[in-house]
Amino acid sequence: MTRVKKGVNALKNRRNTLRKVKGYRFGRSTKERQANEAIFHAGTYSFAHRKDKKGDFRRLWQVRMNALLKELGLSHSKFIPMLKKANIALDRKILADLAQNNPETFKKILESVR
What is the number of structural domains in the chain? Predict the structure, then answer.
């Protein structure tokens, strides 16, 4: 069997790894083993935080809605069940956008629910 030297491939892998960790601090930006470790951790964090982001936005939408609802003498926890009872299928994202950008429309929805 012929001999295969892997110098070119090893260099290519190392270069690609170090490109990914450009801007990291200390040895993680220059040393291959530490760079691989940093890439692995970054991947797990990014996966977990993509999941967290959904909850963060849901919380933000609730706060935005509640800000307008408090002015109108209601709370978010009372408003959502009223929506469900009235069979209005608007999600929190849309409702929060309405509360922030079109308060008149949001007030109309609130009146239809009451």
Answer: 1
* Residue 57 DSSP SS3: helix
The Cα–Cα gap between 109 and 93 comes to 15
pLDDT band at 114 (very low <50, low <70, confident <90, very high): confident
For 59-76, give the secondary structure using H, E and C: HHHHHHHHHHHHHCCCCH
- Give the CATH number for residue 33: 1.10.1900.20
Question: What is the Cα–Cα distance from 105 to 11, expressed in whole angstroms?
Answer: 60
User: pLDDT, tens digit, for every residue of 61-88?
Assistant: 999 999 999 988 898 889 999 999 999 8
Give the integer Cα–Cα distance in Å for 47 and 90: 28
Give the residue numbers spanning the domain of 106.
8-113
Q: Which of 102, 83, 103 is nearest to 91 (CA)?
A: 83
The pTM (predicted TM-score) of the whole model is 0.68
Q: Would residue 3 count as lying in a domain?
A: no
Asked if residue 2 belongs to a domain, the reply is no
